[in-house]
Amino acid sequence: MAAVAAVLPFAVVSTAAHAVPTAQARLATAASKTPNRTVTAIVQFKPTFSEKAATKLVRAHGGKVTSKVPFIHGLAVKLPAKQAKVLAKDAHVVGLTLNSRVHSTGLDANRIATSYPKTTRADKLWQRGITGAGIGVGVIDTGIAGDQPDFKDAAGNSRIVANVITSPGAKTPGDGFGHGTHVAGIIAGDSSHRPVGDPFKGKYVGMAPGANLIAIKASDDAGNSTVLDVINGIAFAVDHKDQFNLRVLNLSLAADTQQSYKTDPLDAAVEYAWQKGIVVVVASGNRGTAADAVRYAPANDPFVISVGGIDESANNGRGGRADWSSTGVTQDGIAKPEVVAPGAHMVSVLAPSSAFQIMCPNCSLGGQYFKAGGTSMAAPVVAGAVALLLQARPTLTPDQVKALLAGTDKPITGNAPTAGLIDVERALYTQLNAVPAVNVRLAKNLLIDYANRAGVDISRWTRSTWSSAPGQFSASWARSTWSCGTCTAMGGAIDPQRSTWSRSTWSSAGEDASAEAAQYVQPAEEAEDTGSLDAPIPTDATELPADDATAPTPTTDEAPEVVQ
Question: Signal peptide: which range, if any (predicted)?
């Protein structure tokens, strides 16, 4: 309960949110005010500088290495704040960042509107058997409550193919906070597999209800996480990309320190995943039009797909940009986000007995679903759309996926013309030569650029050790459960500085769902009496696209049922 109390309960974030210090300013402040205080930092070295030499340099500044940092030729170190500032200026150091906290990007809205599969035209693809089947989507978040029926297939098997723990502070598998489960439900939930007679059967369906999920728990059980925890989660995704056909990675989170994407370690990690063929989808943030709205990793990286949120009920039902959705220009002059998707009034799977349910009981629908909103909820809409595209067109590269989504989007009221609402059906049937190329002539993150020019595979220098998780982490609902052998500090102890420099909460604001919950009371009572309910109404048949000759052949699987 102490951790829950640390979360600001369901307050709408003002569009005039206060800017926080830059990474450089935060380091300077720490060095000035508490010069002798031990801090934890992520240090990025030049690719030609060996690990042995880097370790020696850290020791020369009164520090010690606690672990390697995947992808960026870096080390996690502990040293006095004053020495951290000095080390940052060393010629062998590309960048030094205090291991800052990350937070989710969800907040509240007003009314429920669960029509996002129709708004994005995902339902048109379902009718042709395109449900994301066979595509793995990694969810780096607070975990997933994988025993919920929404994450099973028609045969009752779990679609969570891997459960991964990268936070040294986690004590259990699953999701004790609730954020990751809500996000996962938007990506790939499918209530049509709930038992006969369940009043929720067929009511709530995610964008890609046939996709597999890789649950990457990068937080402790109270939702506290750090940049390093997230980077290690990205490392797992890259290391096991082929094993799980992991083609998509969703990050509904943001670092709490603004920094140029060229030197930010989290931006380096997402760029590396992108280079390795993984489509990275991130939430743009909930700072509205504030000056620093889009200056936080990973949403400020120009290569990945950053997603803003719309309110489908705005503008007299025609939809419009949600005023909390971050939009603007990064510190490097990049317009963000690239696309927008529904993010307000989103109903998705609730992790039982999670902090979500405790913080807002009225946001719960029958203890099974939860209503919330924010760009945390808009990003998984796009991640699910990407899974649909990749099932139908598996040879698409990340750049091509981004080009198709951004090149076929639709203008939305109140939003910049460069960021429209995705139309996944239109994207599916559009030729690549009909949309502008993306990510052309962009400067890479300096760590990535240095490594490329030096011919260094940075994953080899910083690869984590993955193994089957110990008993307390094993999850019966996952086909495999993994833990990170090198994610803990040396000696096996959790770094106590995490709570000082790196504490965060993955808060997602809920909404009063009591009116919606009431509609299920009578059906639930009838189900108890009769043991059955009327089946949900199937999606109406529609005309195939004009270019249906090139359309994928439908599978024999039945399309998921949804309520109109």
Answer: 1-19
Query: What DSSP letter does each residue of 131-142 carry, written as one string?
Result: S-TT-EEEEEES
Out of 141, 150, 409, 495, pick the active-site residue.
141
- Residue of 61, 73, 103, 179 marked active site: 179
> Rounded to whole angstroms, how far apart are CA atoms 338 and 501?
31
- Taking only the tens place, the pLDDT of each residue in 454-509 is 777 666 655 567 888 888 899 999 999 999 877 764 333 333 333 333 334 455 56
CA-nearest of 98, 53, 92, 93 to 77 is 98
Inter-helix orientation angle 375-392/179-188, to 10°: 40
User: Cα–Cα–Cα angle for 432, 433, 435, nearest 5°?
Assistant: 75
Query: Which residue did the predictor score with more confidence, 113 or 86?
Result: 86
Over residues 222-250, the mean pLDDT reads: 92
Residue 345: active-site member: no
**How much is the pLDDT for 237?**
95
Order the strands of the 93-98 sheet from edge to edge. Answer: 64-69, 74-80, 38-45, 93-98
Quote the DSSP letter at residue 37: S
Say if residues 133 and 210 touch (Cβ distance below 8 Å): yes
Instruction: Find where tokens 């998984």 sit.
Output: 380
Annotation marks residue 512 as catalytic: no
**Of all helices (H) and strands (E), which one includes residue 425?**
helix 424-428
* 28-80 tens-digit pLDDT: 888 788 888 888 888 988 888 899 999 999 999 999 998 888 767 789 899 99
How far, in Å, CA of 561 to CA of 482, rounded? 33
Percent of the chain as helix, strand, coil, to the nearest 5: 30, 20, 50
104 has pLDDT over 60: no
How crowded is residue 70: how many other Cβ atoms within 10 Å of its Cβ?
Answer: 30
Pick the catalytic residue: 260, 376, 504, 507? 376
**Residue 527 token pair:** 């189900």
- The CA distances from residue 413 to 121, 341, 404, 419, 423, in Å, are 19, 13, 21, 11, 16
pLDDT at 508: 59
Token pair 């719960």: residue: 364
Q: Give the pairing type, strands 346-349 and 369-374.
A: antiparallel
CA quadruple 242, 246, 248, 249: dihedral positive or negative? negative
Q: Name the residue with higher pLDDT: 99 or 325.
A: 325
95's enclosing H/E stretch is strand 93-98
> What is the average pLDDT score of the chain?
80
Q: What tokens appear for 82 in the block?
A: 């004053």
CA distances from 495 to 2, 299, 500, 502 (A): 20, 27, 10, 10
Give residue 490's pLDDT. 35
Q: Any catalytic annotation for residue 376?
A: yes
